[in-house]
Each structure stands twice: as structure tokens, then as C-alpha cells.
Design goal:
The chain is an alpha+beta fold. It is 36% helix and 17% strand.
Length: 325
């Protein structure tokens, strides 16, 4: 392997990993490069103290960054050699990545790589256009390649139950000042120059309800923030899906993040976006109910809706110097 090409692959992988999705766009990761190895670490200062006390969502976010780095490295012609949680004495070290054997990236890998900076999280309803069943089946396979299971929820009654649980969790959290203040910490006011958190143009000021209603986070809590774009035509629920794992360990959470980013990049390549609803998963009793009643005993790691949107908005990311040690 040429030294320069390896160095370039490492640089590209770290640069790309910044664009992974994360809870409230907290970007809770740090990277370091030593020789020919990238280290991915969790940034505990960016963990949600009340919404994510266990760190589950933090590790899912970091797992998404790991898959993004893997994809970028493959696009540069190297099969990544990855070790998950390689050192028990350093729990914040989540993974190491080294360029392995040289490979020729195929069309599917290049398609995923092309979506890394274009993929966006959606925070409203979708256009009344169906997501093709063949694409949904491909997203199921994409998640399975990383270990977790993506289950499209086809029963209207099950969709109503998940919506009701989301409404209940959102209602409880909205009454908890700790949750609200934590959310506001990661909400940007209009004109903000911050490079993390959810920018004001990243969510609608007023959201038309879907049927059944999947409430969004109140990023404009006690403020009149948000995108004023007309959302009246975007009221479809889309395809509701659950991402689950057989276990509920730190390894499972990282795997869930990798599966999530794999399916999101594939969906984005076909014009499909995702809206996330993690409120019910942040409340132990509701998450346990979902596990036993709708997930066949597997652990729910993400609730999402998949659909078509024509919303073209910018995203923000911290600079490479902010995340690279």
C-alpha cells in the first residue's frame, strides 16, 4: 500500500465520519489518528444527562459515525479492519479502524459514499407518495448486514400504538423542566453560528399533524423559532419501522448505530428520508412495553418513519479540528 494513499484514506474517513447523524445533532464523538489507525472515542461531555442517562443513544450515534468512516474508507479503496471496544480498561474507546486489504469499491459502496454529506434528518410529515416495497426490503437487508433487525410496521393498529406511546412520552417529557432545558441546550436560535445542535431551519415552526400523530420534539420551547416553510402538503406518516437488537449491551448499541447509518445512506440514495422518534425509548417502562408487545422480545433501539420529502435544508457540523485530537 502506498503511504500517501493510506494517509489520504484515513483523512477522508475521519472527515466523513463528522457527517453521521446523532441525537439532537450533539456529535458526541472524538477521533485520533496514530500511525495507520483511527481511534473513535465517545465524548461524555455531549451525552444527554436526562434523556440518555445510560449512554445508549450516544453509542448509537457513535456507531453511525463508525459506519460512515468504514464506508468512506471503502470508497478510497481499502477494506476497513475494525475492532469494537478493543480495550476494557478504556471504556470510552469505542473502536479502532485500520485500512486493510486494497479493494475496488463497487457501485453500491460509491452510492452510499455519495450520500454521506447529503443525507438529512427530517422533522415533519412526508409527502403523500409511497416508499416502494422493494426499497423497504433492501433497507431491511442493509440493517441485517450489520446484525440488527429493521421491522417495517405494517399493521395500522400497531402504528397507532407506537404513535400513542410517542405522544405519551412526549407529553411527560414536556412537563419535565429538566428534559426541556436539556433540549433547549441543543436548539439553535435563528442566526446562530454554532456548528452543533439543531439549527432553527432544521425543524418546522408549525407542524401539521400526521394521522396518527407522531409528535416532534419541541425544539422551539417557549420561543418562536423554526422553519416557516409551508408543511400543509407534508402530512403523511410514511413507513413506520423499528430497529431492534437481540441483546442490549454496548456492542449492540454500536451495532444499531452502524445498521442505522447503513440503511439511512441507502434510503437517501433513492430520495427517502427518515424522521426519528426516540421519546418512548427514553422511558424505561415504555421501552419495555415495546420490547415485549411489538418487538418479539428484542430490544428496540430506534423508532423511525421513512418517507419522501422535498425539503432541502442545510445541516451543521463541527470542524475537523474540533473533533480530531
Amino acid at each position: 500500500m502506498a503511504v500517501l494513499s493510506v494517509k489520504h484514506a484515513l483523512d477522508v474517513a475521519v472527515e466523513a465520519a463528522r457527517w453521521a447523524p446523532s441525537i439532537h445533532n450533539t456529535q458526541p464523538w472524538r477521533f485520533s489518528v496514530t500511525g495507520e489507525e483511527i481511534s473513535l472515542r465517545a465524548d461524555p461531555d455531549r451525552k444527554l444527562r436526562f434523556g440518555d442517562a445510560s449512554g445508549r443513544e450516544l453509542l448509537i450515534s457513535c456507531g453511525a459515525a463508525l459506519f460512515t468512516a468504514r464506508t468512506a474508507m471503502r470508497c478510497e479503496g481499502f477494506e476497513p479492519d475494525v475492532r469494537i471496544l478493543p480495550d476494557p480498561d478504556r471504556p470510552s474507546l469505542l473502536a479502532t479502524i485500520r485500512p486493510g486489504r486494497e479493494v475496488q469499491p463497487d457501485e453500491s459502496i460509491r452510492a452510499l459514499g455519495a450520500e454521506i454529506e447529503r443525507r438529512r434528518t427530517h422533522r415533519a410529515g412526508f409527502a403523500d407518495m409511497p416508499v416502494p416495497d422493494r426499497l423497504v426490503e433492501r433497507l431491511v437487508r442493509a440493517a441485517m448486514e450489520e446484525g440488527p433487525r429493521l421491522t417495517p410496521v405494517r399493521s395500522p393498529e400497531a402504528v397507532r400504538i407506537i404513535a400513542a406511546l410517542t405522544q405519551a412520552a412526549q407529553g411527560v417529557q414536556a412537563q419535565d423542566r429538566r428534559f426541556s432545558l436539556e433540549l433547549i441546550r441543543w436548539s439553535q436560535p435563528p442566526g446562530s453560528r454554532r456548528k452543533d445542535g439543531v439549527p432553527a431551519q432544521g425543524y418546522p415552526q408549525r407542524v401539521e399533524r400526521t394521522n396518527p400523530d407522531f409528535p416532534q420534539r419541541d425544539y422551539s420551547w417557549r420561543h418562536d423559532w423554526g422553519n416557516q416553510a409551508d408543511q400543509r402538503a407534508a402530512t403523511s406518516v410514511g413507513v413506520v419501522a423499528l430497529l431492534t437488537t437481540q441483546g442490549d449491551t454496548r456492542e449492540d448499541w454500536i451495532a444499531a448505530g452502524q445498521a442505522l447509518q447503513h440503511l439511512l445512506l441507502h434510503a437517501a440514495a433513492f430520495g427517502v428520508s427518515a424522521a426519528f422518534h426516540t421519546q418512548a425509548l427514553e422511558m424505561g417502562l415504555l421501552r419495555e412495553f415495546l420490547q415485549h408487545e411489538l418487538c418479539s422480545g428484542e430490544y428496540p433501539q430506534m423508532i423511525m418513519r421513512l418517507g419522501i420529502t422535498f425539503d432541502d435544508k442545510d445541516s451543521v457540523r463541527r470542524s475537523l479540528s474540533d473533533v480530531l485530537e
